[in-house]
Structure formats: structure tokens, C-alpha cells
Amino acid sequence: MSQVAKRIVREVHDEPHLEGRRITVQFLKEQVEDRNLDPRTVADRHDLDVADVYRALTYYHDHPEEMRAIERQRQSAVDEHRHLTTDPDDVRD
Fold first, then answer.
1. Residue 22 near residue 60 (C-beta atoms within 8 A)
2. CA–CA gap between residue 36 and residue 39 (Å, rounded)
């Protein structure tokens, strides 16, 4: 079994993630709450202890303003770079 992350840190891309991993709090929240995956499934898929998943969910809900700010930053980056992507409907064989 994997080591349990002892804390949530902000070392990668200035976004909260599990210490020693690049897996963000936001990603784990999306997997469990938005995609309705079981926390154990998420932990197994990413070689985490299930406690890490619950720790991330707790952090997410304990810091709602911080997490909303991160979500706004992500959306802003998507919007800013949207012109660099190709819509699949625009691609011709």
C-alpha cells in the first residue's frame, strides 16, 4: 500500500495537492464528487491511501474561498487559450 500523505501543500502550480505527489485537491474532488467515483476506487487508481482522498476532500470543503479562486483561475486559463484549440467539427478528412 502507498504511503499516506501527511498534509496538503501548495508546491506545484501554486495549487493545493498531496505532499510528495502532483495529484491536486481539485482533481480528487472532481473524481469523487463530480464523477461519482468511490473514494477507494480513486485511491486504488492513483496508488493512494484512501485517507489521502478523504484528506483532500476535507481540505476542499474546509477552504471554499480558496478552491473557488482556483476554479476561477483554471476557467480563466481555459478561456484565454481557447483560440489555440481546434473544434473536432472543424477538422475535415
1. no
2. 9
Question: Cell digits for 68?
Answer: 473557488
CB 39 within 8 A of CB 50: yes
- The whole model's pTM is what? 0.79
> In the numeric block, which cell numbers belong to residue 69?
479562486
Neighbours of 36 (CB within 10 A): 7
Q: Would you kindly state where each structural domain of the chain is located, as residue ranges?
A: 8-81
For cell 491511501, what's the residue? 49
Per-residue pLDDT tens over the stretch 60-89: 999 999 999 999 998 998 888 888 877 777
Sign of CA dihedral 68, 74, 75, 80: positive
Taking alpha carbons only, the member of 33, 55, 52, 56 closest to residue 43 is 52
Looking up cell 505532499 gives 19
